[in-house]
């Protein structure tokens, strides 16, 4: 997980392929099997302080914010604390009410993003407690916060964030487990999540082995002017991040919508010329998700689905079968084919994969 490109064509594919190891590194030394919890030594928070948290507000920019949206759902699901994520750039300009019983979490791969740093400083000025989920050790945000979790994902060289996204969501799963186990979460639920986390590296390897099949789909996607991404609940941040990846590295326009919102406007865009990429886990919302896909197919929109089993061709032209984990952790796995889709589309179109036009790895000036 170093900064050398080796025999890889691009840093982006190198970093996508590193994810079995980077996820394992995010977990390393942090799982406590005996008490079915996570140890997060860097949090600097007593059990009593953790129990007093009434709300969690997560701040970040770009991909870090989408990872935060999944983090918020993990914290609500496992720790039963209300949690939301918001772009740091919006938060800092809206004179937010800073609450002493809210835990603020700043997410940043680089630890240098100006809007995230400014949000942290504003929070601290008003007495807020802020922890960081950061990759770069000793970075400005890492030094500024009151404690946190390092990703240990190694240098991320490609402008488009990939391994830092999956490591951030993994770190949030650990934080949610930790908070859950000192609040409401039963030991067997803790064990279930730990077993799921431990399965991730191997399952990521299985997904990476489908790269060629994904490259085939990417050839078709690359010919489109615009692509719709849909998902619901945990699939919604995955869809947002998938659309972002495609836009930033291939320059193909994409937009993401929560599946059920499609009928409130964007369904008007669906046609044989606009493919949809759908996140369709085999969970309690499967029927709802497949009915959205039927609506798309009725308008002759091509559909590519990320699912846990092959879907019927009436609702999805192509299915990418992703291994099943615990429902809370499935989004980590579902995001990986979307990274590969964006990568292969960018390659087909001959884009500057690691350094897309107009973008910077970290935005340190406004
Ligand atoms: C830039 C990068 C994105 C990244 C965002 C936040 O816009 O191009 O890939 O998600 O900054 O960066 P951070 O280092 O704070 O996670």
TrEMBL record:
Source organism, top-level taxon: Bacteria
Domain SIS: 46-185, 217-356
Single annotated GO MF: glutamine-fructose-6-phosphate transaminase (isomerizing) activity
Principal subcellular localization: cytoplasm
Enzyme Commission number(s) of this protein: 2.6.1.16
Catalyzed reactions per annotation: D-fructose 6-phosphate + L-glutamine = D-glucosamine 6-phosphate + L-glutamate
Active site, UniProt feature: 361
Keyword ATP-binding among record annotations: no
Cell compartments where the protein resides: Cytoplasm
Keywords per UniProt: Aminotransferase, Cytoplasm, Glutamine amidotransferase, Repeat, Transferase
UniProt subunit comment: Homodimer.
Function, as annotated: Catalyzes the first step in hexosamine metabolism, converting fructose-6P into glucosamine-6P using glutamine as a nitrogen source.
Name of this chain's protein: Glutamine--fructose-6-phosphate aminotransferase [isomerizing]
Organism annotation: Pseudonocardia humida
Gene name of the record: glmS
